[in-house]
Amino acid sequence: MENQAAFMTGVKQLEIRDIAMPVCGDDEVITKTDYLGVCGSDVHFYEEGKIGATIVTPPFILGHEYSGTVMETGKNVRHLKTGDRVALEPGIACGHCHFCNTGRYNLCETMRFRSTPPADGLFSRYLAHPAHLAFKLPDSVSSLNGALIEPLAVGFYSAVQGEVELGKTVAILGGGCIGLTTLLSCRQKQASSIIVTDLYDSRLATAKALGAHHTINSSKVNPVQAIMDITSGRGVDVVFETAGSKHTALQTSYVVARGGRVVMVGVITGEIPFSFREMNRKEADLKTIWRYRNVYPLAIRAIEEGYINLDGIVSHTFNFEDTKKGFEAAMNDKEHVIKAAVKF
């Protein structure tokens, strides 16, 4: 069988190359890729060659939003068989550091997160991966939506950390893929009112279709004032920053209600303005998110049982041979490309 991978060979450069077929370890599975989502962090690496102090050394394989089909199982693997469709959790923790031993493996001191240098990502036709991080997809979950389990895990974990529940009011600052999966997760947790802000009407229309109660175009009106008007001057119980923007980061402390909670989800590099005076006078909590932990099975079950519907998140699909076009579209057409996915 022929194996190929999409390599980032430089800033804004990507090419498909032949690579060797993977060898299956005793505790691994070999999978044939079905779909991969193009994540915002992948695009950032592609466009800038780095995120903060994390620098790509080409050639490098990106990609971590993955669904595939099991082709081979290691001799110690019991929960999967050939032909099973799976979503792969891309973070490979050591399993024995302080954080792993206390259940917070997303903070593992030697985490190998595939597609974050130096750990190559998943943009290849066939690959080997630890079997305990391969989660079987039910028949009711499509392979396309299986590739969205990873960004859904971020949204799901964010809603958990935000302690969203029935009766809570929520603002989500950023209507990209992570903002939308956070929206779906807050809906599943029965938030009473969800406000989504973004710069583009097209993204806000998708947010509305997915269940947002209110949408605000931040390029046309002052989002802080608009949120305060909607909430009769009170602010929201939980505000999520999902855009990864210094501007929305600053807005969070002004729209959170007294006694509320700010959850920082987006990746923001460099120093950011933030009003701790606003947080102090409101006695508001501040939570940060680093990926996720222990949520893949819960996210898959939520889709299977109909609590979350991911249809509509993927706006553009590209064939594997056109992976570079997918990255270019995600980089250059943020107004229309909510989530680009690559089909193998």
What does this structure look like?
It is a single chain. This protein is an alpha/beta fold. It folds into two domains: 3-148 and 314-343, Medium-chain alcohol dehydrogenases, catalytic domain (Quinone Oxidoreductase, Chain A, domain 1, Alpha-Beta Complex), CATH 3.90.180.10; 155-288, Rossmann fold, CATH 3.40.50.720. Helix content is 28%, strand content 28%. It is built from eleven helices and 20 strands. The protein has helices at 40-48, 98-101, 143-146, 149-161, 177-188, 201-209, 223-230, 246-255, 276-282, 296-304, 323-332, and strands at residues 3-10, 13-19, 28-37, 50-51, 54-55, 60-61, 65-73, 85-88, 91-92, 112-113, 126-130, 134-136, 169-173, 193-198, 214-217, 236-241, 256-264, 285-288, 316-319, 340-343. The strands form five sheets. Strands 3, 7, 8, 11, 12, 19 and 20 form a seven-stranded mixed beta sheet that branches. Strands 15-14-13-16-17-18 form a six-stranded parallel beta sheet, sandwiched between helices. A three-stranded antiparallel beta sheet has the order 2-1-6, with no helix packed on it. A hairpin with a 2-residue loop joins strand 1 (3-10) and strand 2. The longest helix is centred in the middle third of the chain and has 13 residues, at 149-161. The mean pLDDT is 97.
